[in-house]
Amino acid sequence: MIIGVVGKIAAGKTTVAKFFEEKGFCRVSCSEPLIDLLTHNVSDYSWIPELPEKAEPTRDRLIELGKYLKEKYGGDVLIKLAIDKKRGCKNVVIDGVRSKEEIEAIKRLGGKVIYVEAKPEIRFERLMKRRAEKDRGIKSFADFREMDDAEERLYHTSRLKNLADYVIVNEGTLEELRRKVEEISENIAGKV
Question: What is the value of pTM for the model shown?
Fold first, then answer.
């Protein structure tokens, strides 16, 4: 089984993916193949489209390389690479799915897609708490909205909600989120 997790910045995609990982899924992010290519850490792959010049995997470089690879090899290239990286796993959850082509690739493989959403204010609060290296340029809610809007223009993330098999509103506690994931997991297991 393949599960794709889609959503805006700090909506809870990785947390949802980790809950599936606890259930025995192998977790991989769509950005992992890009990081691996930029750092030349490619031993987990059976194929690679091409190796770029070795570089630090900053958010801007990841976006640039991702756009280039999608233009040259197709919009589903990151899904193909992520699945290849985890080819030894029976069940895979892919965190950070970002396009219609990626969703279609997951569904072609018989997978399901979960869209995770939360209000901007809640997502900003989470982002400030997590203090991830890639988010260090965000100092204010205005910075967050600017980055959120830029990502929306680039990926049209909110439109992807209509393509998802399941939608989770993640504005409560971690336990409430876990229960929602459990319901979806049971629903998917019943259909497999």
Answer: 0.91
